[in-house]
Amino acid sequence: MGKRRRRVGPKQGSLEFQPRRRSHSKRKRSFTKFKFWATALVLLTLCAGSILAFRKYSARVFNIRTARAREISKQVLKQTQRPEKEQERYADAVARNCVEKELNPAIVSAMIVVESGGNPLTISSSGDLGLMQVNAKIHAKSFDFEQRNLLNPEENIDIGTSILKLMVDRHGDEKAIQAYNGLLPEKREYAPRVLATLARAGLSIQGQTVTSNPSFGVALSDWLAAIRKSNGS
Q1: Domain range spanning residue 180?
Q2: Where would you tag: which of 89, 115, 151, 216 has the fewest CB atoms within 10 A of its CB?
């Protein structure tokens, strides 16, 4: 009777043993992939939440700044002697455009007072139209006026503030007001008239600039107010 042979498992390093090692390695790779995609999903969720929160608070900051600009504009536009509803309408357009384009609502409102006295149907002998006396011929290269109604207050203020922004870019903050009306010597009294209008509205002309960039303190205050308003709503 022959001896029975003992069956033994595969030795390490043998071909039969390799599948177990590969199976362990495969599970390890699968777990690594799971961690990667789980981490990516968490980061993506955090980024999406941050973007949504930023947009939400940015909209509230815009509303806070627009409300402040509207009050400043109304203070100046009182000099037009136009009906209160018209003044509020103009102030709304001035505030929105000034916040979007980083312009000073007091300056823009004073320019409206000087240019047209708040009459949206004003037409000058040289063809200047509307509240901010926009000349379509002069600015034809910069704007397409075919689809724009310059006698409409909102459209006129939109284009007028865009022109003023161009003047800032071309001539700098100090010359922007005068450049809006023209830099010829005979028009040099324009900027002083605008500043005098500010003074009559009870606003100091010292330190007034065409552009309006909130200081760090004001910007921080606006964001904190937006966050508090959001948490309280």
Answers
A1: 39-223
A2: 216
> What's the rounded Cα separation, in Å, for the pair 93 and 137?
24
The answer, as to whether pTM is greater than 0.85, is no
Q: What is the pLDDT of residue 133?
A: 97
Torsion on CA atoms 20, 22, 28, 32, rounded to nearest 10 = -170
| 113-135 confidence digits (pLDDT tens) | 999 999 999 999 999 999 999 99
Q: Is 9 helix (H, G, I), strand (E, B) or coil?
A: coil
Q: What tokens were used for 135?
A: 């000349």
Q: 105-123 burial string, b = 16+ CB within 10 Å, else e?
A: bbbbbbbbbbbbebebebe
The rounded distance, in Å, linking the Cα atoms of 232 and 45 is: 24
Asked whether residue 231 is assigned to any structural domain, the reply reads no
- Amino acid, single-letter form, for residue 6: R
In a domain, 97, yes or no: yes
Helix or strand run (H / E) with residue 162: helix 153-171
